[in-house]
């Protein structure tokens, strides 16, 4: 039995462990209905820590205890205490060996934490606290140990047996079983442990490191996917090279392995030397993966690889420090992606995630600082705040100390803490020591939740030719934090003259300046101006804050045309479109026929016609703010009106610029073989954006375009864009839609990753994805309710990606989701908990939705024996 009421744990209560585990020798005997785990631990008392404790308590969950030995003596049950989730043994010496044998049932483990089976393959997921489902242990990241792992299994079924480090011995037993022993020379916490056993094929390559060492690279998948590993391999080699060149970090083992598994709760996992990936984040071929998937594979391969230093060589002292490894590693992978692809577009994409989803998290009931002060269930804190805002915080440090100092700080951090479990404070201190820049006030970013707002006002005095900018900052209250201290915010600005030229801001003629905003309110003065300039504020999204400045709509149009900062140019368009759509929403609520402001339509025409504009940036500028973004910016969310208003604006743009869009679509005609190269991606994305607009037109020939593109598509990007255009259109016949869906199904029914997109396209379609249709898809032969990918595609696609259908009716969508959350909580609490997110925002919705959402949450809360995952989210939300 679990505790009646799950309890929070607090950062302030952190204490070093009473014991260390210097060595961990594991033997896994894998069978068809269970696994026997023998763990031999070299334990040593932590002498620095407090008074001698006469006993050692290890944690363990769902384990069948077989035997316990201290040194060479087996203990009787009377000599140890087995708690519901613990094992306590007596301690008589400073150092001893503890041998524990447990039986576990990987075949029955549906939580996908610990050791489990995915499509007949044994695999593990131990971050954050999964190792305790394998054996009794000090399952906390500050306990670092040298692991040796022997895996024994049937050779026919499981010819490949992997674990961390290097394989040092192998052999066979009578009766068809074989074994492999792996040794990891680096000390690591248990969360980085991994094991795989299966019938897998491998793609091999090598990489020669900067000191001339040859590393074997291996990617393992089920045989039918082996032809989809090339892109991941190329990405891995690029990542290894980039980390050497940009951070001076070399790989440290003789082998680096990646294994693709279908059943996985997250994207991927950085286990030392043996990364385990969700198949969807590693497999790619032109026929099965879109451009976006290609880029995602590249980014995630890089992310996990970069963790080898930022996470594994230097790990986290405790889980409150999660952003130490995640924020820094996301920053590293973002810079890598920017170097490999379009830097400008990457910045826009990342800012979009921040401004739609992370700002919403910061404004919701689960808001927490990048270093939380408490949690009930750590799995709930693998969030956009810890990852993406954590990345922005690291980026701000780079902006404040400068690029050269940032690299010096990173070198110092790795030097100082190699082989240690460190804290966020250690990272900031290294940056401070290397740069000499005082980051005292900057540390507030680690302690305070919520999105700061900067309010900018300006004044021009023609007689003194002085222009002043006043910046005030505030931050809304968040749970447990009513008032905040001012943040240190780097605000990059430029001043544009009437021709759109950025004015020099100092003697050396620099046209951009980073204002170090530290006070609640402060004024900067610029001299020698002949006219009132237009400020370009928060260039390149220099800080994760909201900006209040009273731009007139013509100013926004001006910035869209002239701002030399790609991000701000895009942002001006988004602001303008948001305002225009918000006007329509207001009109719809009053039952009035509001006009669409022609400035927006004209501005889009200018973007379309601009031949100098980089195609990738142009595409971003042609996208309207998403429904999620509009909801995030609304005071009160009226979902149906948001969908309606946005859709009207899209149509109006299509109608007004039909000829131009059509011409652009035609000039971008695809030729030759597919390549995931940036310029080609840009052309395809722009062309498919045009197709999306043209499909808004009630005109047979335009509707036929999408169908034709579907029939002639030479790659998955064009195929899916065409399919989405067809199923999202209100003018296509059901017959055509069904024909395409069936064709897609026929072609891809054996490809699980592609089938995820088949489910997602339907569940997220405003016209097709009705509740009834989603329910019918649950019965489909390709749906698998034990697969987090399928659940995310169908339930997540509906609840998070289909504002119109999820919020229509009188709460049936919410009840449906609640039913699933209750069912899944027993099976896979992590996935259940992630699916809750849309319901947690209930307080922001208009009264009818709000009330229905609240009821659905109450119903979940009333279920007995909720997991800690769901318990935490539901109690904090209500
Ligand atoms: N550390 C991984 C993410 C990850 C976290 C938790 C997991 O299971 C609960 C799985 C993966 C990363 O940042 O890539
Ligand atoms: Zn990570």
Automatic annotation (TrEMBL):
<dbReference type="InterPro" id="IPR037144">
    <property type="entry name" value="Peptidase_M1_pepN_C_sf"/>
</dbReference>
<dbReference type="GO" id="GO:0008237">
    <property type="term" value="F:metallopeptidase activity"/>
</dbReference>
<dbReference type="GO" id="GO:0006508">
    <property type="term" value="P:proteolysis"/>
</dbReference>
<dbReference type="GO" id="GO:0016285">
    <property type="term" value="F:alanyl aminopeptidase activity"/>
</dbReference>
<feature type="domain" description="Peptidase M1 alanyl aminopeptidase Ig-like fold">
    <location>
        <begin position="450"/>
        <end position="550"/>
    </location>
</feature>
<keyword id="KW-0378">Hydrolase</keyword>
<keyword id="KW-0482">Metalloprotease</keyword>
<dbReference type="Pfam" id="PF01433">
    <property type="entry name" value="Peptidase_M1"/>
</dbReference>
<keyword id="KW-0479">Metal-binding</keyword>
<feature type="domain" description="Peptidase M1 alanyl aminopeptidase C-terminal">
    <location>
        <begin position="554"/>
        <end position="878"/>
    </location>
</feature>
<dbReference type="InterPro" id="IPR012779">
    <property type="entry name" value="Peptidase_M1_pepN"/>
</dbReference>
<dbReference type="InterPro" id="IPR027268">
    <property type="entry name" value="Peptidase_M4/M1_CTD_sf"/>
</dbReference>
<feature type="domain" description="Peptidase M1 membrane alanine aminopeptidase">
    <location>
        <begin position="233"/>
        <end position="444"/>
    </location>
</feature>
<dbReference type="InterPro" id="IPR035414">
    <property type="entry name" value="Peptidase_M1_pepN_Ig-like"/>
</dbReference>
<dbReference type="Pfam" id="PF17900">
    <property type="entry name" value="Peptidase_M1_N"/>
</dbReference>
<dbReference type="Pfam" id="PF11940">
    <property type="entry name" value="DUF3458"/>
</dbReference>
<feature type="domain" description="Aminopeptidase N-like N-terminal">
    <location>
        <begin position="101"/>
        <end position="192"/>
    </location>
</feature>
<dbReference type="GO" id="GO:0008270">
    <property type="term" value="F:zinc ion binding"/>
</dbReference>
<dbReference type="InterPro" id="IPR038438">
    <property type="entry name" value="PepN_Ig-like_sf"/>
</dbReference>
<keyword id="KW-0031">Aminopeptidase</keyword>
<keyword id="KW-0862">Zinc</keyword>
<dbReference type="InterPro" id="IPR045357">
    <property type="entry name" value="Aminopeptidase_N-like_N"/>
</dbReference>
<keyword id="KW-0645">Protease</keyword>
<comment type="function">
    <text>Aminopeptidase N is involved in the degradation of intracellular peptides generated by protein breakdown during normal growth as well as in response to nutrient starvation.</text>
</comment>
<dbReference type="InterPro" id="IPR001930">
    <property type="entry name" value="Peptidase_M1"/>
</dbReference>
<dbReference type="InterPro" id="IPR042097">
    <property type="entry name" value="Aminopeptidase_N-like_N_sf"/>
</dbReference>
<dbReference type="Pfam" id="PF17432">
    <property type="entry name" value="DUF3458_C"/>
</dbReference>
<protein>
    <recommendedName>
        <fullName>Aminopeptidase N</fullName>
        <ecNumber>3.4.11.2</ecNumber>
    </recommendedName>
</protein>
<dbReference type="InterPro" id="IPR014782">
    <property type="entry name" value="Peptidase_M1_dom"/>
</dbReference>
<comment type="similarity">
    <text>Belongs to the peptidase M1 family.</text>
</comment>
<dbReference type="InterPro" id="IPR024601">
    <property type="entry name" value="Peptidase_M1_pepN_C"/>
</dbReference>
């Amino acid at each position: 039995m679990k505790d009646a009421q799950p309890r929070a744990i607090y950062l302030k209560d952190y204490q070093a462990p009473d014991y260390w585990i210097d060595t961990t020798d594991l033997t896994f005997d894998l069978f068809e209905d269970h696994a026997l785990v023998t763990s031999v631990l070299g334990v040593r008392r932590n002498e620095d820590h407090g008074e001698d404790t006469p006993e050692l308590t290890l944690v363990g969950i769902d384990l069948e205890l077989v035997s316990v030995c201290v040194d060479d003596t087996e203990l009787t049950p009377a000599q140890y205490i087995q708690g519901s989730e613990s094992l306590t043994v007596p301690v008589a010496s400073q150092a001893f060996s503890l041998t524990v044998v447990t039986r576990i049932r990987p075949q029955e483990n549906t939580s996908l934490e610990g050791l489990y089976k995915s499509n007949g393959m044994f695999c593990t997921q131990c971050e954050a606290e999964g190792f305790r489902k394998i054996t009794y242990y000090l399952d906390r990241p500050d306990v670092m140990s040298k692991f040796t792992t022997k895996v024994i299994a049937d050779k026919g079924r499981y010819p490949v047996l992997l674990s961390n480090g290097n394989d040092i011995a192998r052999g066979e037993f009578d009766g068809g079983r074989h074994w492999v022993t792996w040794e990891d020379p680096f000390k690591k916490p248990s969360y980085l442990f991994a094991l795989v056993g299966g019938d897998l094929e491998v793609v091999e390559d090598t990489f020669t490191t900067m000191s001339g060492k040859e590393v074997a690279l291996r990617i393992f998948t089920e045989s039918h996917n082996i032809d989809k590993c090339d892109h991941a391999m190329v990405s891995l080699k690029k990542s290894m090279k980039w980390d050497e060149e940009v951070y001076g970090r070399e790989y440290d083992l003789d082998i680096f392995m990646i294994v693709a598994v279908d059943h996985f709760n997250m994207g991927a996992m950085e286990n030392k030397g043996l990364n385990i990936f969700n198949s969807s984040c590693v497999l790619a071929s032109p026929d099965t993966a879109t451009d976006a998937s290609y880029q995602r594979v590249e980014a995630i391969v890089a992310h996990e690889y970069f963790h080898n230093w930022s996470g594994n060589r230097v790990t986290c002292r405790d889980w409150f420090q999660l952003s130490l490894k995640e924020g820094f590693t996301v920053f590293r992978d973002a810079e890598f992606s920017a170097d490999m692809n379009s830097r400008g577009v990457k910045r826009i994409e990342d800012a979009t995630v921040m401004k739609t989803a992370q700002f919403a998290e910061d404004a919701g009931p689960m808001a927490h600082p990048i270093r939380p002060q408490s949690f009930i269930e750590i799995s709930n804190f693998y969030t956009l705040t810890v990852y993406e805002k954590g990345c922005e915080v690291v980026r701000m440090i780079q902006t404040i100390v400068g690029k050269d100092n940032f690299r010096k700080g990173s070198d110092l951090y790795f030097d100082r803490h190699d082989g240690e479990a460190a804290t966020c404070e250690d990272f900031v201190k290294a940056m401070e020591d290397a740069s000499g820049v005082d980051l005292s006030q900057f540390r507030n970013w680690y302690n305070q939740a919520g999105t700061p707002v900067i309010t900018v006002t300006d004044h021009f005095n023609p007689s003194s030719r002085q222009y002043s900018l006043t910046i005030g900052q505030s931050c809304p209250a968040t749970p447990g934090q009513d008032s905040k201290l001012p943040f240190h915010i780097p605000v990059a600005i430029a001043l544009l003259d009437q021709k759109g030229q950025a004015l020099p801001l100092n003697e050396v003629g620099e046209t951009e300046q980073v204002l170090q905003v530290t006070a609640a309110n402060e004024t900067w003065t610029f001299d020698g101006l002949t006219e009132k300039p237009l400020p370009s504020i928060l260039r390149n999204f220099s800080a994760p804050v909201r900006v209040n400045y009273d731009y007139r709509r013509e100013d926004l149009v001006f910035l869209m045309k002239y701002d030399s900062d790609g991000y701000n140019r895009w942002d001006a368009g988004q602001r303008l479109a948001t305002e225009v759509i918000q006007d329509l929403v207001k009109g719809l609520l009053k039952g009035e026929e509001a006009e669409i402001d022609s400035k927006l339509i004209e501005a889009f025409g200018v973007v379309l016609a601009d031949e100098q504009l980089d195609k990738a940036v142009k595409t971003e500028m042609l996208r309207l703010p998403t429904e999620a973004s509009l909801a995030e910016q609304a005071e009160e969310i009226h979902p149906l009106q948001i969908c309606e208003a946005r859709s009207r604006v899209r149509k109006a743009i299509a109608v007004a610029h039909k000829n131009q869009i059509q011409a652009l679509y035609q000039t971008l005609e695809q030729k030759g073989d597919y390549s995931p190269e940036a310029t080609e991606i840009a052309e395809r994305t722009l062309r498919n954006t045009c197709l999306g607009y043209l499909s808004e037109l009630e005109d047979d020939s335009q509707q036929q375009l999408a169908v034709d593109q579907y029939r002639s598509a030479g790659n998955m990007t064009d195929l899916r864009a065409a399919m989405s255009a067809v199923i999202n259109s209100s003018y296509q016949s059901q017959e055509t839609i069904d024909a395409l869906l069936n064709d897609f199904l026929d072609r891809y029914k054996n490809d699980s990753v592609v089938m995820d997109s088949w489910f997602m396209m339907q569940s997220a379609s405003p016209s097709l994805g009705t509740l009834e249709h989603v329910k019918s898809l649950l019965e489909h032969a390709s749906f698998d309710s034990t697969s987090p990918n399928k659940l995310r595609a169908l339930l997540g696609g509906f609840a998070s990606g289909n504002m119109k259908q999820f919020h229509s009716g009188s709460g049936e969508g919410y009840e449906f989701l609640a039913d699933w959350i209750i069912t899944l909580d027993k099976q896979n609490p992590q996935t259940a908990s992630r699916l809750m997110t849309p319901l947690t925002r209930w307080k922001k919705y208009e009264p009818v939705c709000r009330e229905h959402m609240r009821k659905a949450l109450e119903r979940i809360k009333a279920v007995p024996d909720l997991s800690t995952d769901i318990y935490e989210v539901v109690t904090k939300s209500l």
